[in-house]
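User: My instructor asked us to take a sequence, write out its structure as tokens, and then describe one feature of it. I'm not sure where to start. Here is the sequence I was given:
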Amino acid sequence: MSTALAALQQHKNVLLIDVALLVALYLVPSFAHLTALPLYMLEPMRVALCVALLFTNRANTYFIALTIPLASALITGHPPPLKAVLMGVEFSILVASYGYLVQRPRISAFAALGAGILLSKLAYYAMKFVALSTGLLAGSLVSTPLQTQLVVAIGTATIFGLIEYHRTKYN
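Assistant: Let's start with the prediction itself. The structure tokens for your sequence are:
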């Protein structure tokens, strides 16, 4: 029992962040329905993944990357299951590419995250194109306008980069 309590104590911050992220993401669809705001365009799952990148460990971030889309699909019915799997792969590519790039000399957190978002989106759209072409998925290739995605990606990377800069500067 004391071993379990010690493990819980050791990982309590990560668990609290995970619970807060999941609760917030579960509330986004309800809030969107109440306000009629298209909150999905702000990519709340990607924002949650960035919060996990900033404040938890890499293993937990992979866990968040894979489970957030699947949990959303199971609980809210959106995204469809296959799209949720594609999103989980996309987010995992983002985590891996960010982890690789940020360790390189002279690559800032902003640049690493921006490049990671770009790489993961390219992989996602390639996988979605195959799924659409084979009839496994219905709909259009791009549902959120690319300009909106670009603005959100730059905004997310900028905020992330600023937070990471201040964290490393003052630690």
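For the description part of your assignment, you could build on this observation: The chain has a mean pLDDT of 87. Try explaining in your own words what that tells you about the chain.
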